[in-house]
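> example.struct
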């Protein structure tokens, strides 16, 4: 027995193949007809769109669902602008916790503070009344922890990246992170995952790429998330980031052995591996590379042996260069064509050069990028400039240059590093701080929709077309917008940028393969 057919009519469809289309028919999870209202066939049910915009649904190509859900209900520190404000937030949150619960917070960013000096472990102890405190920095590659948590993790003191102040990086951070998140029960994790996916659906996102791995989550968390994929929530495509872990990734149900397989750290914590020293860190400090070219090569060969897509997290230009050297080594064994067919990925790819971009083109690498990074940290007076200098800041996140030479792009948020915000990401890519790196709204939208599907080898997805899966979102758009993508609409040319005040579309409904996974006004 087939599902009831549904006619959606009276809308504005983002359908390049039929720009005048105002209606579509959904039958058995696919688009069975597209065209004008007057020509619409009969259907078991009719949904009146009342002029709403209909587009392919978004794909977020890099998320951490459990962390996102915990951040949505936990201590959000993204708005604090001083050590004092952070301590006040911790004190207020800790006062409402039961028993000896751990204070879990996220999102502080010292680069936005007038005095970029975070509190130490003792001050956190006093603010939290002696509780264990774990506060991840915006990049999630370092954290502030209290003296109580340090005492509970004696192994951290001997690990790389330890600092008695309580601001921990590298291996020491992984030790305390594991201890802090061990306090979260399985039921709380499931609740956090569903909260994150439900929030994603409310933003017109129908699929996410979960980037897990032994250093950022755990196997139970990862497989639990995959188990609820598409069950009234967006679909989840998992990447397991473990070096030479293709067999394990396949066993866990992952589509790839990559994602957050770290070739380096992050710019926020000064652990991204860059070729020229940070300007605001230790003299001569260039961050840290976590893999060698030979390890990259062996990992890609392992992925080929198991028929899996591979990839790496690589932010700094030195880390990306190392990864590309590994690709060159793998190509000598497998051949370039076989590497290209796998569509291996590099996550973030923030500090690039023409030579590095050429490597992406040569090996067919998908660049999984986050436009919000430029919106939040690019341009004059922001974190990239303080870490790298203005010239390197303006050359960072070169989405426009990469798109211009044919690099396949898949956009995401890295949530909770930046919030789930697909339309905001489209706007950010179209309004890069460096005008030379801007993309058209249409190209940026494609990278955040079809690009995400292509990154998981589902090439027929992400379009409104006859026979395609009925995966789309329905939007209320700003007044006066008739057709096109409403992301850069301000009349004032100076306001037409990442901070354009024009309201972005609001999701009315999200449909995944014909099933409504979000409906405005429903619980």
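> example.seq
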């Amino acid at each position: 027995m087939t599902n009831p057919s549904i006619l959606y009519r009276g809308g504005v469809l983002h359908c390049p193949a039929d720009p005048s289309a105002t209606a579509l028919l959904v039958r058995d999870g696919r688009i069975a007809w597209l065209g004008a209202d007057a020509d619409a066939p009969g259907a078991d049910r009719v949904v009146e769109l009342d002029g709403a915009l209909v587009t392919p649904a978004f794909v977020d190509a890099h998320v951490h669902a459990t962390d996102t859900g915990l951040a949505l209900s936990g201590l959000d520190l993204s708005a604090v602008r001083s050590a004092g404000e952070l301590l006040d937030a911790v004190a207020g949150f800790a006062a409402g916790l039961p028993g000896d619960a751990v204070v879990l917070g996220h999102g502080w960013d010292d680069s936005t503070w007038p005095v970029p000096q975070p509190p130490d472990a003792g001050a956190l102890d006093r603010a939290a009344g002696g509780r264990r405190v774990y506060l991840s920095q915006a990049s999630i590659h370092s954290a502030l922890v209290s003296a109580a948590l340090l005492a509970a993790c004696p192994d951290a003191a001997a690990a790389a990246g330890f600092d008695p102040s309580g601001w921990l990086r590298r291996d020491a951070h992984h030790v305390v992170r594991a201890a802090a998140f061990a306090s979260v029960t399985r039921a709380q994790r499931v609740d956090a995952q569903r909260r994150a996916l439900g929030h994603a659906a409310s933003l017109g996102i129908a699929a996410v790429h979960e980037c897990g791995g032994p250093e950022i989550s755990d196997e139970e968390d990862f497989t639990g998330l995959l188990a609820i994929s598409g069950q009234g929530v967006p679909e989840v495509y998992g990447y397991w980031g473990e070096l030479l872990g293709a067999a394990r990734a396949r066993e866990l149900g992952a589509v790839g052995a990559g994602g957050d397989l770290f070739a380096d750290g992050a710019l926020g914590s000064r652990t991204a591996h860059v070729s020229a020293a940070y300007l605001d860190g230790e003299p001569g400090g260039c961050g840290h590379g976590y893999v060698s070219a030979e390890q990259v090569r062996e990992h890609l060969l392992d992925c080929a042996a198991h028929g899996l897509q591979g990839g790496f997290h690589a932010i700094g230009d030195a880390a990306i260069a190392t990864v590309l050297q590994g690709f060159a080594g793998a190509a000598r064994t497998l051949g370039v064509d076989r590497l290209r067919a796998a569509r291996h990925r590099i996550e973030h790819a923030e500090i690039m050069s023409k030579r590095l971009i050429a490597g992406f083109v040569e090996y067919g690498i998908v660049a999984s990028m986050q436009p919000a990074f430029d919106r939040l940290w690019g341009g004059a007076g922001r974190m990239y400039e303080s870490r790298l200098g203005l010239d390197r800041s303006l050359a960072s996140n070169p989405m426009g240059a990469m798109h211009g030479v044919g690099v396949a792009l898949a956009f995401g948020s890295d949530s909770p590093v930046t919030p789930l915000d697909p339309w905001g990401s489209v706007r950010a890519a179209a309004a890069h701080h460096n005008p030379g790196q801007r993309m058209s709204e249409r190209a940026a939208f494609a990278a955040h929709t079809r690009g995400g599907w292509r990154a998981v080898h589902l090439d027929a997805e992400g379009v409104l077309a006859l026979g395609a899966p009925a995966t789309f979102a329905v939007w209320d758009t700003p007044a006066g917008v008739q057709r096109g993508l409403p992301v850069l609409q301000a009349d004032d040319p100076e306001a037409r940028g990442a901070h354009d005040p024009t309201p972005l579309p609001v999701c009315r409904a999200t449909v995944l393969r014909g099933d409504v996974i979000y409906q405005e006004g429903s619980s």
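> remarks
The domain at 189-456 is CATH 3.20.20.140 (TIM Barrel).
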